[in-house]
Amino acid sequence: MEKPDTLFSQPKEPDPFNFDKKVAEVFPDMIKRSVPGYSIIIQHIEKLAAKYVTPNSLCFDLGCSLGASSLAMSKGIKQSGVQIIGIDNSEDMLKRCQQHINAFKHNIPIKLVCNDVMQVKISNASMIVLNFTLQFIPKEQRALLLNSIYQGMNPGGVLVLSEKIEFEDNDINQLMIELHHQFKKENGYSDLEISQKRNALENVLLPDTLEQHIQRLSSVGFSHVSCWLQQFNFTSLIAIK
Ligand code: GEK
Question: Domain 38-166+207-240, what fold?
Fold first, then answer.
């Protein structure tokens, strides 16, 4: 039974959001109730792994949290000689991730590394997942990270990039925020929880627009780029080298 997320249910001092032990404990419940489309994205990471992962290559899960995307890739991979590398800079998340990986049956080896994704050397990759991680990287470093992903990827490799987005049109932006908050309320979060979490994420999670993502992916060199899923202000893109 998943531990329910009640981290923002009581009034508290505003503190920037941090991926600490308390967040790690409730993370599966938190992400499902907060991120529209999350479960569909995880299901399709499995399907994309089945299609794109090639023999004797590496798969990277950058900002792996508790390993949901790594486990999805491992379920989908049909090829031999493949290794999955999960990277996260939160020790608390990775400790719990290791417990998840040990608890779930998986045929493909998954190695976990505690590091900043900006420091990771990527090579021989046929699939890379950035599932709601780029939004936490300083904006001026995002093109650098995508460039190192592109350079370390084999031709024909796939990147799945999922993000919270903002909209240039103010009315649409407001509407999407409202629809997202309604989604959270329907999932049992109170107005207090929604507003305290929103304050904690201010200046920590910095969204780009969909157009900025597409432009950045194209300018680092990806040949085929498209959004394949969007619900309100949450989206997932696919980029093929
Ligand atoms: C999933 N992908 O379940 N280096 C390494 N890790 C980082 C960095 C960084 N610079 N910045 C943030 N993180 C997962 C969900 S959660 C998304 C990803 C969310 C890590 C951070 O510690 C956290 O575990 C993860 O990125 C973001 O498919 O909570 O909205």
Answer: Rossmann fold (3.40.50)
| Ligand 1 atom at shortest distance from the alpha carbon of 117 | 4
Which atom, in ligand 1's list, is nearest to the CA of 65? 24
The 10s digit of each residue's pLDDT in 60-79 is 999 999 999 999 999 999 99
**Domain residue extents for the chain:** 38-166+207-240
With a 6 Å cutoff on the Cβ, whether 69 touches ligand 1 is yes
- Nearest CA to 202 out of 51, 28, 17, 78 is that of 17
Ligand 1 probe mutation, 2, 5, 19, most atoms within 8 A of CB: 19
Q: How far is the CA of 61 from the centre of ligand 1 (A)?
A: 10
Question: What would the pLDDT profile of 17-33 be if each residue is shown by its tens digit?
Answer: 677 788 787 788 889 98
**List of long-range contacts for 221-227, beta carbons under 8 Å, 24+ apart:** 221/150, 222/150, 222/159
Q: What angle separates helix 38-52 from helix 68-76, to the nearest 10 degrees?
A: 40
CA triple 184-186-190, angle to 5 deg: 60
